[in-house]
């Protein structure tokens, strides 16, 4: 398969039939692009246009180019050439098999020889507070474990160069680390989010309004700093959530951490 260096979204029309204010955006390998905007502003529709590699054949009339060219029929429709992987917090595994067996089977299906399955489970365990064991059955995994395993699976086994993520904020995983893991594999990542940790961690964010792409904002270094601080708070909440789930009592909270975050945020 040709290496995908970039995807280009050519703007179409918004919900009122007016041309989109942002008429073109190109995303390159390793870049993380956030998609933000109020409810109903067209975030999921944009993801859907990319997933379908729309060619002015959806309600938005957008056109998606791959490596600056119109992709052929095979690229759009052949499941073996699947260019786009999608992750959302509602996805679940339905196969009744052990984690190790599933990952081995998926690697074989994707013709990935020499993949270290234990390494994938290790990566997934970096994203979730509850350890995943290779003998665990997929159907007994919690929501957080499921999403963590999907991210590691997409990062290492799936050869799809474009990853679309639709609202994983409540997935119960280390979201920031998940993005790092995916972008580190040279994938193009577009993430729909209402969550400032994810929005400010992205390189740029598309602002949606009334079904159209309104603007493209590049994250500033100050915003990246805020994202790091929010990320630390996020990890703290994840750890607390885990303790509560395990029936433990909470004796203290890292107030110093939270205090320093809020204080330095005041300077901005
Ligand atoms: N440019 C457009 N032209 C026509 N219909 C559109 C356009 N953009 C979005 N829509 C439609 O508007 C509705 C809301 O869009 P969408 O679900 O993408 O919003 P959203 O921002 O993801 O909302 P939420 O945050 O609630 O998930 C959908 O039915 C979608 O198909």
UniProtKB/TrEMBL annotation:
Coiled coil: none annotated. It holds the Pfam family ABC_tran. Gene3D superfamilies: P-loop containing nucleotide triphosphate hydrolases. It comes from the Bacteria. InterPro entries: AAA+_ATPase, ABC_transporter-like_ATP-bd, P-loop_NTPase. Residues 4-236 form the ABC transporter domain. Keywords: ATP-binding, Lipoprotein, Nucleotide-binding, Transport. One of its GO terms (molecular function) is ATP binding. The keyword Transport applies. Belongs to the ABC transporter superfamily. This is ABC transporter ATP-binding protein. It comes from Draconibacterium orientale. The lineage of its organism: Bacteria, Pseudomonadati, Bacteroidota, Bacteroidia, Marinilabiliales.
